[in-house]
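Re: weekly structure request thread

Next one in the queue (565 aa):
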Amino acid sequence: MFDFFLSILRANPSLRDTRSYLASFGPRPQTQSPATSPLVSPSPVVQVAQQTISIPDLPKTSPILASILNPVIRRTALVKVQGPFTDVQLDSITRGLVYLEKLGLVSVIVVENDELHRGEQDERSSIIEETTRVVTSLEKHGARARPVVGAIVRLGPKPGADDTVAVNGICPPESHTIDSDLIPIRSALRAGEIPVISPFALDSFCRSIRIDANDVIAGLARGMVEAAAEDRHKQAKYDGTLEDVDLTPLRLMVINREGGVPSYARSGYPHLLINLESEYSHIQETFHSPWHHSHPTALSNLSLARTCLAYMPPTSSAVMVSHRSPSSLIANLITNKPAVSSSLPHALLQGNRKLTPSTPTLLRRGLPIQVIRNFADIDRKKMNRLLEDSFRRTLDQNAFYGRLEKTLDYVILAGDYAGAAIVTKEECPGLEAPITYLDKFAVLPSHQGDGTVDFLWVALHDESYGLGLPFSANPNGGKGGRGEGRDLVWRSRADNPVNKWYFERSTGHLRMGSWVLFWCDAEKRLEIAKGRRASSGLSHIEDWEDGRLAKWADVIFKIPATWKK
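Done, posted below.
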């Protein structure tokens, strides 16, 4: 139990992470009749030998602590246990899954064995034996588990559904479920048991055959989401109560021996966070040949995540993790963030001890990223809503757009104005080129905490101070990594709570009264300077650094505010 609490503490959730967790697993507000619910509850009174003794109220448990240790709402996760694993490895995996159950996330496990090829002799009995191993290991850690060795999905299109229509541009899975197929899962969950499923399906002749676990999981993701929606419809119609366990999968977890998806930008170390909407094709195109041997199922699991997340709620995520780091599943559940932020400076990521070959890859459905360079292409109505909702202030539209029309360099957009980075060119006497100024960086409140901030900042990096380096060649509709990087400069109020985030991502900062000036140096130029003076071991000011802060500050702090008072 000690390592369970230690894993929670290591997650180090922020206030927003805690609120998000409580929104999913904490108690729901209940309305009570005023007549039956007094505003103040009196202390209990006991009469003993004609004396009245008042018993003081006991101290109340913190709602956060209570929700973590005894979650009110139980949610499900689809988990692929992709073996084979040794007994020690399996023990580590199931311990992590049992911890997740304590936190309110009940695993619906599908077992796979990559070394057990389809069509082999005793294939069925071998996969059932593997399923039983997982059940036994879960029960060893105090959980209750139930093997489900019958076919749980059916091959082919779902009757009555138009499976020729893609969902979010993704073709439907090869398998489907009907209501009766989910009875074993519902039964296990109601009994407080973790269902452990063998990858069997019914074919068109109603024969139970083994199929790829990915097809089982994809069919379950769709079927469980549809079943949960039907449950909610019935609850609303008949004013009943919801199931103890919400069938809608909150997470997809792939636990294997390979770990996450390798990245060319991290020398083969895993991607930290993947925006499937904009990066899926690019990852496949940049997947190096040797990785097909070291990570043979990475691309198929990437495709699985893309299919499942198309049906799961937008707040859901997928994680691909090695059996070597099962404790990271707890951090992912509580924070729904990668182990290390992908928007941190590249040099900082290279030296980060948390970044190892076993670091998990977090995958989100994400949003498309595009770059606008023409002022006329900006949708003012949508931009106004984004800026005012994000900053919670009223925009002086005439002043803002009047200045922007003259100085716009480009705008990076996430989705349909869910987030934006507005970059301008500010003329500066004494400098050869205009200052690349980050005028506005905004994300809608509804998208804060879902990865949009990191996706947007990475795109900003690729278009400005990271330009010219190989790992900046990402598909965001911009320059594709071609060009020379430019220093990025911006300002922020000294009391802005976002400054902590800026401190972590900037090269440096300068406090000037009620403002803070931030900047990110062009990384390609830094690499050149680093190589030139590597042998000297001296730290000195480069010619291009001399006096630039004063020149930047003189221009940046004269830019007028664009908010109404």
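Residues 30-55 have pLDDT under 50 and may be disordered. The first strand starts at residue 45 and ends at 48.
Next request, please.
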